[in-house]
Amino acid sequence: MTTISLVTGGSRGLGRNTAISIARHGGDVVLTYRSGKVDALAVVAEIEALGRKAVALQLDTGDVASLSTFVATLQNTLRVTWGRDTLDHLVNNAGHGEMADFASTTEEQFDTLFAVHVKGVFFLTQALLPVLTDGGRIVNFSSGLTRVSFPGFSAYSAAKGAIEVLTVYMAKELGARGITANTVAPGAIETDFLGGAVRDIPDYNTAFANMTALGRVGLPDDIGPMVASLLGPDNRWVNGQRIEVSGGQTI
Predict the structure, then answer these.
(1) Which of 39, 95, 104, 178 has the fewest CB atoms within 10 Å around its CB?
(2) Is-annotated flag, keyword RNA-binding (predicted)?
């Protein structure tokens, strides 16, 4: 039976690449977007061109009050499109970055980061438990910045550190249903994260490339296929792990 994966923040960057990679591995995809509907529909079209099914739904993962409505919409979409009301995989990717020194980080920046990256992941996953099939998979995105420090990312990295701990608890508490939960932690990647800083600012790109054993920064194509493979049957025994995908950054 074809698998169905929900990828949050699937309209751009690593979420987009993950959604397309899942389709290339033979899976169907529900992807979410917060405001980039046009970009999301373009991803749907690209997946459909691969011969797979895809649907884009609007979701603000930081708005916990909207989650019950989203789940109802999702289940209706699953019934209409696939004739079922369950998912096989959940990929919690949606998020954003804030770069500010510890001394200058505002409460608003802190609260927004934790609302999306921690609270949103916690309660979205909780709300989706009745929809996620037994034997399913959860992948939560973290960051290489939980292992090494880089000035300006204290709040962001603290949020991602919380996700890594939360993932272990998901793996433990959902194991009775055969559900695995793992964290994927990318290193520096050329995306539009932080306005495309790593991609578009040569000094940033060079600095991170010089920190990496393989001598370059990462590309979305370095991440999405790895996530898709983690969702496959060959990785059914991987559980509760933090998997860094960074080309050997700062080792």
Answers:
(1) 104
(2) no
Phi, psi of 33 (to 5 degrees): -140, 150
- Quote the pLDDT of residue 97: 84
Do 181 and 238 touch, CB atoms closer than 8 A? Answer: no
| Separation of alpha carbons 101 and 33, rounded Å | 29
Q: Where are the domains of the chain?
A: 4-183
What is the pTM for the complete model shown? 0.96
Number of Cβ atoms within 10 Å of the Cβ of 102 = 11
Domain 4-183 homologous superfamily, CATH: NAD(P)-binding Rossmann-like Domain (3.40.50.720)
Residue 40, burial from CB neighbour count under 10 angstroms (0-12, 13-18, 19+): buried
Helix (H, G, I), strand (E, B) or coil at 176: helix
3-state secondary structure of 58: strand
Chain-centroid distance of CA 178 in Å reads 21
pLDDT of residue 202: 85
84 touches 68 (CB < 8 A): no
Helix 37-49 and helix 13-24, axial crossing angle in degrees, nearest 10: 20
Model confidence pLDDT, tens digit, residues 54-93: 999 999 999 999 999 999 999 999 999 999 999 999 999 9
169 is catalytic: no
